[in-house]
Specification:
By secondary structure, the chain is an all-alpha fold. It has one domain. It is 82% helix and 0% strand. It is built from ten helices and no strands. Helix 1 packs across helix 5 and helix 3 runs parallel beside helix 7. The longest helix has 25 residues.
């Protein structure tokens, strides 16, 4: 497991698109943090979700998954390592982008968001393992956030990103909902990672 984790971490740190995505998401979250802590929380969550998708889906996008699975035939270990690396990147993104929020007197919101970020990162990694196409995921979840959660749910229903928002304020009902969304995605990802890599 340590070797797989080291390999995934090294790969994520040496691919330019990972750094570009991390910098882009962190900058966007930091800029929104000047508006309000709620905006920062939303964009930190979206950034954590997005960076997890980038880290996980790159193997399928660049067709390196075949080599990874030849080197480590236990694909669940690879998925676990990708989840850990996604969580690490997501925590760095949230911690750095939220400095203005923490310094502006919202330390408790900052810390509670950091505590929930790993869940949305694992949810993102699982989704990327299932769908394998980052652009499909980004487009699909942008529409989902705008229409299903925003217009229809009015950011009040226990859907994934709404659950993240309210869980980061300490609302236990939405924390349980986010845990349920993440837990439900894991068996699907565990099944999906066994699919033929060439079929994408």
């Amino acid at each position: 497991m340590i070797a797989v984790l080291r390999s995934e971490l090294h790969r994520s740190l040496t691919i330019r698109s990972s750094w570009i995505a991390l910098a882009g998401f962190a900058t966007l979250a930091a800029l929104t943090g000047w508006l309000s802590e709620e905006f920062w929380t939303l964009f930190a969550g979206l950034g954590a979700f997005g960076i997890a998708i980038m880290i996980t889906a790159q193997h399928y996008q660049h067709r390196t998954a075949i080599l990874v699975f030849l080197g480590q035939p236990h694909r669940l270990l690879v998925f676990a390592a990708q989840c850990v690396v996604s969580v690490l990147f997501a925590l760095v993104l949230a911690a750095v982008s939220g400095v203005a929020v923490a310094g502006g007197g919202y330390g408790s919101e900052y810390l509670s968001t950091l505590a929930v970020v790993p869940l949305i990162a694992v949810f993102g990694a699982a989704n990327a393992t299932i769908v394998r196409h980052p652009l499909w995921l980004f487009a699909g979840y942008l529409g989902w956030l705008l229409f299903a959660e925003g217009l229809i749910g009015r950011l009040e229903e226990p859907l994934p990103f709404t659950s993240f928002l309210y869980a980061s304020t300490g609302d236990s009902r939405f924390l349980l909902s986010l845990l349920a969304w993440t837990a439900a995605s894991l068996p699907l990802a565990a099944w999906s990672i066994r699919r033929d890599v060439a079929a994408g």
